[in-house]
Design a protein that fits this description.
Length: 218
């Protein structure tokens, strides 16, 4: 009787030790799946998806100053975190950092989600006096996979896309996301929102789609 119990205990200890040893690589893989980053080439414009802090704006300005595009597009409406219109706020911050007025395009329309914001971007592109056939999308690292999916869903193949996440060292989120409360919440919510986006924008029709639309946010 004692031997089977000891064998079971050793097996549990062994499995627990293995799980502990591979825990960090698994957790890293969960976070890294959300991070999409391209090797950047020059583009017609840099698009900043509106956010709750300055890091997206500032990184887009850095990319502009490095010569990756000749203009920056800011979109998004009222943001309670900055108590300002997101597009106008981005414009003001870019001007403060030396970006010329003629290199800034804004659309401050109110939007309820990333999807709605990129739909609004498509209208900006269609009304641009100069053709915009390539963009660099800037957002938080863990936001990038859903953002890329949305860009492709809305803009299709008409616009070439590159993704440029804010570097972890320049933003508030941690690559080892499970060690930081804000990062943990972000990763958890992103997986939920990815599932929702697929259901809402790809697989639902009619009354189901209308019902899912009532949950639109971010």
């Amino acid at each position: 009787m004692l031997k089977p119990i000891l064998t079971l205990g050793v097996a549990i200890l062994l499995v627990g030790s293995i799980l502990y040893l591979i825990r960090e690589p698994i957790l890293l893989a969960i976070g890294n799946f959300l991070v999409v980053q391209d090797e950047l080439n020059s583009a017609d414009a840099i698009h900043v998806i509106s956010g709750s802090d300055n890091t997206r704006i500032d990184y887009a300005i850095v990319l502009y100053q490095q010569g990756y595009a000749n203009q920056i597009i800011f979109t998004g409406g009222w943001c309670p975190c900055t108590e300002a219109n997101s597009a106008e706020y981005g414009r003001a911050r870019a001007l403060q950092q030396g970006v010329p007025e003629q290199a800034i395009v804004i659309d401050g329309s109110e939007v309820t989600s990333t999807y709605a914001e990129i739909v609004q971007l498509s209208k900006v592109l269609s009304h641009s006096p100069l053709p915009i056939r390539s963009i660099i999308g800037v957002s938080d690292p863990f936001h990038m996979r859903r953002s890329r999916w949305t860009y492709r869903q809305v803009l299709g193949d008409q616009v070439s896309l590159q993704m440029a996440p804010v570097p972890f060292e320049a933003g508030p989120y941690q690559r080892r996301w499970w060690t930081d409360e804000g990062s943990r919440q972000y990763v958890k919510e992103e997986y939920t929102k990815i599932a929702y986006y697929y259901a809402r924008y790809r697989f639902s029709i009619g009354p189901l789609q209308e019902w899912l639309a009532t949950f639109d946010q971010e």
